[in-house]
Amino acid sequence: MSVATMDTDNGTLTLGPPTGAGGDVSDQRLLGHHDAGGGNLDDHWAQYGVLLIPDRDDPPWRESVREAVSASGLVGRGGAGFPSARKWASVSASRRRPMVVVNAMEGEPASFKDRALLYRSPHLVLDGAEVVAAVVGASEVTICVADDNRSAAASVEQAVTERNIAGVARFRISVVRPPAGYVTGEESALVSWLDRQRALPMLRIDKSVALQVARRPVVVHNAETLAQLALIARHGPQWFRQVGTAEAPGSTLVTISGAVRDGAVFEVALGTPLIDILRGAGVESELSGVLLGGYGGAWLRPSLLATPYAPGPMTAAGATMGVGVIVALPAGSCGLAETARIARYMAGQSAGQCGPCVYGLPAVAGDLEQLAAGQEGPDVVGRILSRASTIEGRGACRHPDGVVRLVRSALAVFADDARAHAAGRPCPGHAGATVMRFPQDTTAQRWAS
Amino acid sequence: MRTSQRVAIRVRVDPVACDAYGYCAELLPERVTLDEWGYPIVDGTPVGADLVDLATRAAAACPRRALLLERV
């Protein structure tokens, strides 16, 4: 299958062919066969088959979907990896009518998978959202697309219109545009914006209590999760498990960038060795490390590139899958300098609510910048690690914890470099071009063009 | 509220509400220390009967009502 490109608001996005673990590479489940722009409802039905959702409450159907999703082993694709079917318990128990929220905010600067999905297969996401709405007894679905992401929003808006014209939408579906930002897509911040127009994370003491909008319980799913769920509702859990591993079934979307020929969104079978995924994207050079998960993710050392791409093995290797971000850092780039840039960006993305995040992240970013430039003494690494421990677990959301994880992994994976830097011998590449992308850069380009 | 000795209490901070007044660390140093920026680092070990009154006072003294008492 050829590689297609689309222009997004934040640059050009390439949609790559799927890579499988030696399996059938034509088995592309999520991104469809449309060239671009979503296709129409007829194409969607022709490709995936019509999905029947009962007109009225149908307890046996509800139970069968619940069982199918549980048996499939689907876990959320928004970063936390929570079992999807378990999200429904807290809202189903409520007496008020729940609301389904589709999280397509995709605030991770290196992730493009949710916008690719909304662009290519918006109806699949809508199918999944309608299934969840029917299962939990909701009457309304709200799709959240960041306000800087016009193409994906236009695609899904068109898909909603098509459903309304065809008279097949069983629920009231609306597309809303919360402000773009790293933490505005955090679940509680998103719900807070929907409820009170304040896109700030909330302290949640008991996470089993459902979030609320207008005092109604809310179930939030990532866009890709819902597309996966739409296919499980059609084909069942056994089909879902035909790819992937027993512990990590199914496929997942990844966004690959950095030192690869085809920076792209790919669909990969879970459990595929990371090196095979990178080869599928045309990895171009020797790597000094791979950033996994996102900017709050972790570095993986090159000697561990054979690690299967699945939550268990990645965690064991000190990394994380997060939202499927994979950035290949070419040899010659300085991982500490890249980490310092990310930490500075993440410090700027704090919601500004919690002291340890507001003061701690800039302090760590500053330490890292000095380490990267070779301007600090030998005790700087100890100070960074000490500050990381101080910050960890003390925010209302996990934003600071992501930075802590990233920074610790950088000091472990690039330990030799850190020693040299601390001794006043920084990598030659520390001030060079970065493979990391930051939204303000692309925003500036957009204004300039 | 009368505190039964069988109900264990621990302290917790609401980091959103907290503005680093630091009274909690003054009043309950057994469970609260301050980081280099003046924000509380809370030890979640349940407080024994000897500390319940101090913990209650520390929570009441917080101008931001950011020190929370939780039953374990």
Concise synopsis of the structure shown:
The complex is a heterodimer of chains A (449) and B (72). With 449 residues, chain A is an alpha/beta fold.
Description:
The complex is a heterodimer of chains A (449) and B (72). By secondary structure, chain A is α/β, with parallel strands linked by helices. Chain A has helices at 41-48, 59-72, 88-92, 113-120, 122-136, 150-166, 187-196, 223-240, 274-280, 311-316, 335-348, 355-372, 380-391, 399-413, 415-422, 439-448, and strands at 4-8, 11-15, 99-104, 140-145, 172-176, 211-213, 216-222, 251-258, 264-269, 287-293, 298-300, 325-330. Chain A has a five-stranded mixed β-sheet with strand order 5-4-3-7-6, sandwiched between helices. Chain A is globular, with a radius of gyration of 22 Å. Chain B has a single domain (9-71), classed as Alpha-Beta Plaits (2-Layer Sandwich). Chains A and B meet through helix 12 of A and loops of B.
What is the CATH architecture assignment of chain B? 2-Layer Sandwich
How many angstroms separate the termini of chain B? Answer: 16 Å
Instruction: Kindly identify the CATH topology of chain B.
Output: Alpha-Beta Plaits
* C-alpha end-to-end distance of chain A: 32 Å
| Major sheet size, sense and barrel closure of chain A | 5 strands, mixed
Instruction: Report the top-level CATH class of the largest domain in chain A.
Output: Alpha Beta
Could you spell the SSE succession of chain A in H and E letters? EEHHHEHHEHEHEEHEEHEEHEHHHHHH
What percent of residues of chain B are in strands? Answer: 15-25%
Q: How many helix segments of chain B?
A: 2
User: Which sequence of SSEs, written as H and E, runs from N to C of chain B?
Assistant: EHEEHE
Query: Could you say what the CATH architecture of the largest domain in chain A is?
Result: 3-Layer(aba) Sandwich
The helix content of chain B is: 25-40%
The number of E-state strands of chain B comes to: 4
Category by helix and strand content of chain B? alpha+beta
Q: Radius of gyration of chain B in whole Å, from Cα?
A: 11 Å
CATH topology of the largest domain in chain A: Rossmann fold
